[in-house]
Amino acid sequence: MTKSPKTPSESAVEMREMVMPNHTNPQNTVFGGTVMSWIDIAAAMVAARHCGKPVVTAHIDDIDFIAPIKVGYHVLIQASLNYVGKTSMIVGVKVTSENPYTGEVRTTTKAYLTFVALDDLGKPIEVPGLKVETEDEIRRFENAKKRVQMKKDVRNTLENKK
Ligand SMILES: CC(C)(COP(=O)(O)OP(=O)(O)OC[C@H]1O[C@@H](n2cnc3c(N)ncnc32)[C@H](O)[C@@H]1OP(=O)(O)O)[C@@H](O)C(=O)NCCC(=O)NCCS
Known about the structure:
Layout: E1 13-18, H1 32-51, E2 55-65, E3 74-84, E4 88-98, E5 105-117, H2 135-161
Antiparallel strand pairs: 1-3, 2-5, 3-4, 4-5
Bound molecules: coenzyme A.
């Protein structure tokens, strides 16, 4: 039986990291793969908290690296559920860097990830609905819905060209 709908705030996750030398690229700023790993973990926790089941990452799209992050800076990873399908969930993630010495904050990365909930046999299972209430929640839901439709349109266009 599917559980009753939940709001995004019931599953939202915030994580903090500090950029250490082992997280960097040859430019001495944070390595993109490290940020992607933090994003995937935060987003997976959101999806699992929403559905109360094991989840797997099915798709990552629209990942934008907007600004580099230096060693020693603090990193805030904020993730919340934007949209749910039948068995899938789209999580939006925003990454902000903070210079701990000046307090300056910058949005550095944004990403959208799709997770699928799995049953005991590893098959997709229905997830609870999403109750969007605030202006931001409704905007994120509508944008995610458009992204899902755009992805379907692109797939259909490419398949028709084969
Ligand atoms: C994700 C996975 C469970 C989907 O299995 P499947 O048999 O294709 O399932 P379905 O076709 O029934 O799709 C289930 C849902 O996932 C969605 N989905 C599947 N692949 C997707 C993709 N690439 N992008 C977005 N959504 C996707 C479907 O739209 C469907 O959503 P809905 O139920 O909300 O309508 C399967 O592809 C898988 O196990 N992938 C590997 C996951 C993994 O190992 N992740 C870690 C990667 S490093």
